[in-house]
């Protein structure tokens, strides 16, 4: 997608419901990323235009939320993210998070489960919640998704019965590798985001929430993400 077209999509994307400071952050960062990279996305027709939905993506770099946000906004939805609870105490950042209706996570605490309740409530209210099931940047040397991840997104998906759209991102790790804080702008990087059809979990909705059921749901979600990533990597 050419830079002028990418910026044009920004101004045609939904603005109502972003919150003032989240909207400001989007406008500034989107233009910056559009000018310094080549954004490519495919499959936004798989993102429902309305109703609660979970977007599940692989995680390669700290910059991943930026192109994923661009993709979701291009699909006419506003993304809500999980974020560390302590960020709600940071100047300016707390305004971005609160206004954007993002969901706090108290990592390393018994209260961390409250984030799952927050996700269920958000999708129940018709929101689009973006999740990185790996829980952090993947550490696989070949950049494929982690083979084992926690079952949080499976719990939310089965509880809410919201569709789970698998998304794969590629190229962000070349812009900002996981092992450095130095952004590599040159040569100009291409970042691709692709989404597949929602993962079929309907046969598990009424099953007991056992580890076996949750493992199966998680396996399907991660397999779908990996399948989308394979379409990019070839």
UniProtKB/TrEMBL annotation:
UniProt xrefs under InterPro entries: Plipid/glycerol_acylTrfase
UniProt xrefs under Pfam families: Acyltransferase
Source superkingdom: Bacteria
Cross-referenced CDD domains: LPLAT_AGPAT-like
Matches recorded under SUPFAM superfamilies: Glycerol-3-phosphate (1)-acyltransferase
Cellular component annotations (GO), alphabetically ordered: plasma membrane
Transmembrane spans: 20-39
Keywords associated with the record: Acyltransferase, Membrane, Transferase, Transmembrane, Transmembrane helix
Signal peptide region: none
Residues in Phospholipid/glycerol acyltransferase domain copies: 53-172
Protein name, per record: 1-acyl-sn-glycerol-3-phosphate acyltransferase
Organism of provenance: Labedaea rhizosphaerae
């Amino acid at each position: 997608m050419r830079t002028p077209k990418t910026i044009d999509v920004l101004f045609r994307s939904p603005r109502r419901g972003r919150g003032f400071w989240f909207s400001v952050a989007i406008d500034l960062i989107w233009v910056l990323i559009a000018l310094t990279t080549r954004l490519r996305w495919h499959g936004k027709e798989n993102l429902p235009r309305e109703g609660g939905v979970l977007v599940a993506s692989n995680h390669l770099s700290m910059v991943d939320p930026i192109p994923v946000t661009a993709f979701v906004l291009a699909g006419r939805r506003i993304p809500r993210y999980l974020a560390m609870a302590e960020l709600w105490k940071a100047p300016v950042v707390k305004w971005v998070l609160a206004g954007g209706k993002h969901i706090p996570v108290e990592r390393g605490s018994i209260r961390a489960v409250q984030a799952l309740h927050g996700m269920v409530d958000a999708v129940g209210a018709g929101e689009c919640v973006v999740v990185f099931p790996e829980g952090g940047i993947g550490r696989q040397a070949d950049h494929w998704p982690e083979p084992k991840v926690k079952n949080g997104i499976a719990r939310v998906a089965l509880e809410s019965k919201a569709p789970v759209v698998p998304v794969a991102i590629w190229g962000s790790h070349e812009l900002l590798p996981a092992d450095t804080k130095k952004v590599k702008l040159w040569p100009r990087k291409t970042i691709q985001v692709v989404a597949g059809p929602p993962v079929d979990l309907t046969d598990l909705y009424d099953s007991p929430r056992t580890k076996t059921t949750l493992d199966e749901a998680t396996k399907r979600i991660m397999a779908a993400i990996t399948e989308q990533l394979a379409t990019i990597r070839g």
